[in-house]
Amino acid sequence: MQLQKDVTMTSSPVENTHLQRLRQLSRVLAAACLWLMVMLPMAVVGYWLVADGPQLAVRAQLPVHAIQAPLMAWQRWAGAVLTLLPLSLLLTGLWEARRCFRRFVAGEIFSAGTVRCLRRFAGWVMASVATGMVTATAISVLLTINNPPGLRHLAISVGSDQVFTLFFAGMVWLMAAVIGEARELADENAAFV
């Protein structure tokens, strides 16, 4: 359901200005999603290649001096791959967000396609968080695997950032469901008129 023609033909100049601002912001956010999709994987790989042991340990929820043996190249590359797994799911979510913003630019504010994009975005973000919890545990083992026996670590953690991200994704999914229900009600009411 495209609102572009209906809104611009029957709305006041103030509403048209508001719609233009929405479109402009949507263009910026769609471009930002694309930029993040390109830059984040490169940043992750770069970080794993240059970060020192204590930085990687703290990032993996380990004590600063948990990594006792020098990290080997294969450990750094494996750590980067493990970090890229949840990131790839998040980037898929960003792709859906970008599709949603592009629909806003086209004037599809309450379309079924927009609702699908929002729901998919939320689902991919949830999957990313869940995968990140598992890979973080694997990374803690990976970083300390060359330590002497008894000094290896297995860190399992759930942080407030993960809980917040799950909460945020759940809110987006619920809002998309509400918009979808409202759209279906509006379609039913329009059919009676």
Write out key terms for the chains shown.
193 residues, disordered N terminus, elongated
Q: Can you give a write-up of this model?
A:
With 193 residues, this protein is an all-alpha fold. It has one domain. It is 78% helix and 0% strand. It has six helices and no strands. Helix 2 packs antiparallel against helix 4 (73-105) and helix 4 (73-105) packs antiparallel against helix 5 (112-144). The radius of gyration is 22 Å and the shape is elongated. The two termini are 17 Å apart. Mean pLDDT is 89; it is low at 1-9.
Short description:
The protein is mainly alpha-helical and 193 residues long. The protein contains six helices and no strands. The two termini are 17 Å apart.
Distance between the amino and carboxyl termini: 17 Å
The number of helical runs is: 6
Give the fraction of residues assigned to helices: over 70%
Question: Mind telling me the C-alpha Rg?
Answer: 22 Å
Q: How many runs of DSSP E, i.e. beta strands?
A: 0
Mean pLDDT: 89
Runs in which pLDDT lies below 50 for 5 or more consecutive residues are 1-9
Name the shape in a single word: elongated
Strand content: under 5%
Give the total of domains. 1
Q: What order do the helices and strands follow?
A: HHHHHH
Largest sheet: none
Secondary structure category: mainly alpha
